[in-house]
Amino acid sequence: MWDSIRKQTGQILAYGVSMEYIDSNPMRKTIRPKHKEYEVKRKFYTKDELNTLLDAFRDFGNTKQNAFFRLLAYTGMRKSEVLALQWKDIDMFNKELHVNKTVAIDEHKNIIIQTPKTKASRRTISLDKGTLAILNDWKIQQRTEYLKLGYNTSSEEQHVFTTLKNTLYIPNTVNDWLRYILKKYNLPRITPHGFRHTHASLLLEAGESVKVVQQRLGHENSKVILDIYAHITNNAPKKTGQDFADMMAHQ
Question: How confident is the model at residue 37 (pLDDT cuts 50, 70, 90)?
């Protein structure tokens, strides 16, 4: 009975988060009785599964969420890094973005911006044309939509992803967005961090070197890549940024 009520209430609130009526799902803070987990979350997707999920985000029609998960999928960034991005960090001309900060929650439950914990996490990531186009679409839409709400987002200091009050997102909000789409389109479960695993696995499958993948993901040493991403999926072409986009192309 409890599980049924909790599930239905959670679904209603998750819809509210996905439509941005509310910033976060309060049901996530409730504690359920321990029981066997029936469905195991996937650590990574195959190329086809990733394309299917990204198609679902496009079909859903939320330009902001589509841009957010496109970045996760095509850069291997941490969700906290993406949420901290400002437009000045994205160089459209040179097709790259600079990772130099993250979003975190402090001891008082406040959302803060902090510098990355390691030197390796501060990095520059190459971007493909498709991702840049999606980001540019969101940038234009953000200016129009937020101006109607009374916010001028034209400054390069503006954060790329913010609530309708133009404040930073609680990191777990991203999980709610993803959970809603996975359920709506009946897709295999995966976490936002799973996009990072997927990006690394598919790059290695494409023939990219361990060292390059390590640097792109911001790991301090290659051991992490070798340990965590040893389960690459098969095939093999070559390279980064635009090459990842080419590999992900439907045709």
Answer: very low
